[in-house]
Amino acid sequence: MGVLTGVRNLSRTLRLLVGTSVRVAPWQALLCLGETGGVILGLLQPLYLAWFVAGAVGHDTRQMALAAGAFVAQIGVGRALVWLGMNARFGQLERVGYEFDARIAALTASVPTIDHLDDPHFLDQLQIMREERGSLGLALNTLLNNLNGLAGVVGVVALAATADPRMLLAAVAGIPGVLAGPILARWQGRAEAAAAEPGRLAAHLLQVGTSPAGGGEVRVFGLADPLRGRLADATHAWWKPKVGLAVRESVVNVVVQVIFFGVAGAMLAWLVHDAVSGAVSVASVTLALLLVGRLQGVSGTLRDIIHNVAAMSRTAGRYLWLVDETARIRAAHHGVGTPPDRLSQGLVLEQVGYRYPGHDRPALDGVSLVLPAGSVVALVGENGAGKSTLVNLITGMLRPTSGAVRVDGRDLTGLDPGSWRSRLAGAFQDHQRWELTLGQSVGIGDLPKRDDEEAIRRALHEGAAEAVLTSVPRGLHTQLGVSWPDGVDLSGGQWQRLAIARGMMRRQPLVRVLDEPTAALDAATEHQLFDQYARAASGGRQAGTITILVTHRFSTVAAADQVVVLDHGRVVEHGTHAELISRGGHYSDLYELQARGYR
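-> structure tokens emitted (599 positions)
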């Protein structure tokens, strides 16, 4: 089964590489074979030299002239073919590499959910693909090198057999080196797997230590030395498997070389003895001497071919794994239904649970809620209570591991994920800082209106971000981000205001999510913003929009129609602000604790 699986994987890899190469540039792919033709012609050099030596010994000038002419012609034609093939190869590598990069980007972007981004196995595979990203584009190069190497092996062995059958003993002596190929390939695969997680950690620590975002904390808290220490440990753990692999490879190489040259030396001594006695021709001995070095390379070439094929299969295999994995995830989200134009009933959560990949404890467990159309719902709770997870389930970013989310009575999994999210709007605490122009940074909240300045200005007003617009030199056309020519930087609060404005671009979404939208804002701006929210929510009631507000600041939730209190992934209370205060339960305790801090 293992051999059959390996053959099937190799066949799939070859179809992928050859098919992609032919698809992106058919004639260029054909010209790449010119290099192989040049390699085959180059194999004839020892034969022509042997003819020349035999002609010289026999005083046959005609044979010497023919051999010399053939030798020179072979050099010219062979080099022309190699030049043609190499130039075609370089162009093809760029095309194929770009094609795979584009496909990987398209595949990862096509996944409708984000739960795979919390899966350590998925992240480790992506880390290896990042480290080996060039290898995927170069896999075609590896394939062509293997083709050239295989042509060389066949040609050298054939020439050796014509010189003297005993020359094949030297080829046989290279078998241990060939057999070492699969072993070395397995060792390399294990080394790559062992290095993936520490490599990911090292990259993260390096990014933390060199990015402006972490610069303040690193310096204020004196974290430079501990960070360097952890980075050194992670880097050591990253390279340790690779260094160990290099040591083992060196030992194997020494052993196989000793075996080969021991057998080859004995074989040549035998041939020379026979040549002295006249049993073997001078041409045969000359050809044998010229081919010994190449025969020594046969085992190394075969081993390299096996090693390269294994590496190529692993690299292409990870891409194929990504193809299969993204296809599996998309198949699991097979909904094709269209969401309603407006909500008439609302959202209903029925015993919804969610467990992150690799975690034993569920992030949400048995959550049942009714969120009526047109209502304003506040989600409150301490950090880790499950608020953001619940939001991700409602927006379809995550799929429940148990229970169901229903939209006007229809299971959310039956709706097309893209269509559902096109009817949502939101602002998030962990927002992206889009370094576009200010207008574009806001406008992309509703792509069809991304250049509509009137809609952008309205969103800035509703997102309490007009002060950001007046603070920059070129208004909506100001480039954001100091890494760009004439770019300006913004404060954390200003970036968050733009994120809120971006979430206000869509006029009548089915659901508007505001996940900790005021974390970086001052009290005055927060008050202004919630006045805007109240007006937007009032307008949303007419369209059936459900406004979901996630916040730690309890003073902002009093106007909500329903307050949902989460604790350790469960709903412990829900009701209006007044109802929950009168109950004197968990919400009341948290509210009083926070209110006490403002007295």
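The chain has a mean pLDDT of 78.
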